[in-house]
Amino acid sequence: MTPAAPPLVEFRKVEKRYPGGARAAVSGLDLMVRKGEFLTLLGPSGSGKTTTLMMLAGFETPDSGDILLDGRSLAKLPPHKRNMGVVFQNYALFPHMSVAQNLAFPLGVRGIRGAEAMAKVDAALALVRLDGLGHRRPDALSGGQRQRVALARALIFQPDIVLMDEPLGALDRQLRERLQSEIKRIQRALGLTIVYVTHDQSEALTLSDRIAVFADGSVQQVDTPEAIYEHPANAFVAGFVGENNGLAGQLTSRAGNECEIRLDGGQTIRATPVGDIAPGARIVATIRPEHVETVGLSQLCNRIDAQVDELVYHGDHSRIRATLAGGGVLTVRAPRQPVLAPTDSFALGWCTDRCFAFAAEGWTNDPLGEAG
Questions:
Q1: All domains of the chain in start order, with CATH
Q2: Which helix (H) or strand (E) holds 8?
Q3: What percent of the chain has pLDDT over 90?
Q4: DSSP structure class, residue 141
């Protein structure tokens, strides 16, 4: 997928409300999916990401707006005529059928049977590396193998687009990571367009060409994984995607790409302002743990004294939880084992261009820097 790839799917001002809901499940959604891209819809429970996927699949109907596929409205097209493969978390395999019969089922619905169907079944099994297992029933397979069968079934009729709703959520971490690699391999090999729903930030960063971050029924930011992680558009994205520290305070001055903040603990720091914030505004200043330095501080604009609360060795790095002088808590990811112990005092700091100031509304992190 290249940035110039044409749009395959377009959501235009799409709105969806459920009876009794205090707010719209999806509100004013404008979103484009390019041909051949892996787009992830990322957000917490109730943010609107699954509703968006279900409207695209045809299992939910928008209250207003339109969804286009290759420039044509899907408004009057039933799910079975949209030529979309769908993969769910619970596999949705027929337990009384063999693997081969499960794969052949969507082909039969489309009038493909006999030798042609069996050839496609064999090719699909080879694609997901399940050659020779077509005779087994789903209950004779592992969870990872069943999810591969579900993926093969979604691909076997060569859909225009594949929709995946938390497909790896029920698997353990090691298996989930292996299947992430498999899904990405298949997507690249076939040039597939995939729309993928997850609440797992790491999964979204690993798999995606672009990520659409959802909150409260609206898209907060759509961009590449790197851009969303390194340059979040607002406090919600900064707090939800990856691990981040947040320090509350008030904006005291702003000039160009820098601003000055007086933290609630009394310290003054400099940061990069994001969005329309003016002096006097309540803000949250964010700095990721790996961008907090404990050595070479003389070259940094921001330097603060702190005390070690907890130090944990992780092999390739160490994590320090520290309380700042005057209040506030930071998590630091140090690339080596520091010569520190709990209750030790030390200094830390960071660059202005790694610290972002946002309007405080929407911040989701807790004081320990855990992702919300």
A1: 7-230 (3.40.50.300), 244-359 (2.40.50.140)
A2: strand 7-16
A3: 72
A4: S
Q: What is the tens place of the pLDDT at every residue in 242-252?
A: 999 999 999 99
Q: Which two tokens stand for residue 331?
A: 């998590």
Residues 6+ apart with CB under 8 A from 167: 87, 88, 89, 147, 150, 151, 183, 196
**Residue entry with tokens 């940094």:** 300
The amino acid occupying position 174 is Q
Could you tell me the maximum CA-CA distance found in the chain, to the nearest angstrom? 76
> Which region, left, alpha or beta, applies to residue 82 given φ > 0 means left and ψ of -120 to 50 means alpha?
alpha
Q: pTM for the full model?
A: 0.90
Place of tokens 């087994």: 136
Six token digits for residue 191: 């040039």
Host H or E run for residue 301: none
What's the DSSP call for residue 173? H
Which H or E element spans position 282?
strand 282-287
Judged against a pLDDT cut of 90, whether residue 21 lies above it is answered with no
134 close to 123: Cβ distance less than 8 angstroms: no
**Rounded CA gap, 126 and 140, in Å?**
18
For residue 211, count other CB atoms closer than 10 A to its CB: 28
Spatial separation of the C-alpha atoms in residues 271 and 357, rounded to whole Å: 6
94-111 pLDDT per residue, tens: 999 999 999 999 999 888
- What is the rounded end-to-end Cα distance, in angstroms, of the chain? 31
Query: Cα–Cα distance between 209 and 228 in angstroms, integer?
Result: 11
Q: How are beta strands 210-215 and 38-42 bridged, if at all?
A: parallel
- Residue 355 CA: distances (Å) to CA of 192, 230, 254, 272: 37, 10, 14, 6
Would you mind telling me the total number of residues written for the chain in this entry? 372
pLDDT, one tens digit per residue, over 173-198 is 888 888 899 899 999 999 999 999 99
Backbone angles phi, psi at 207, to 5 degrees: -95, -30
SS3 188: helix
